[in-house]
Amino acid sequence: MDYVTARLPELRRLAGSLCKDSDRADDVVQQAITKLYVHWHKAQSAENLDAYVRTIVVRTFLNERRLRWSQVKLVDDPIERPAPHGREVETRLVVADALDNIPPKLRAVLVLRFLYDLSVREVAATLGCPENTVKSHTARGLTLLRRQLGTHLAATDRKEQRA
Fold this sequence. Notes:
The chain has helices at 2-19, 22-38, 40-44, 49-66, 87-100, 104-115, 120-127, 131-162. The chain is mostly helical. Residues 95-143 form the RNA polymerase sigma factor 70 region 4 type domain.
């Protein structure tokens, strides 16, 4: 499928933003592509194919989070991966860590609204919920994100004061 080949990096980026784990993101994308393949006749008639596929990826992520096996840990400690250095990378990692502590549905709304710059209407269509739900999830998600970032920033300030 030429469409999937062309969109694969974007689909992986979206899933990665939601999952915060590249292996899980690959699983979500694979499941989404399988669903797309099965329903390709329906997808071709969609008004906006990119939005249709994005919806499949987001809903696959949310459904996967509801399943019990998604909470199974195979190792006690996460595998440490060396991170690139630099202030921008540090900020991105701090925000990603804070997003990781936000419930999946709120995280999906924040990622779609602010990382993918979708309108409230587009996010509502993607998630299959009313626009007011997107607005309330955005407000609650931002409050939780600010709380998470405030905790991190306070800890960083204390470390810098000791040094």
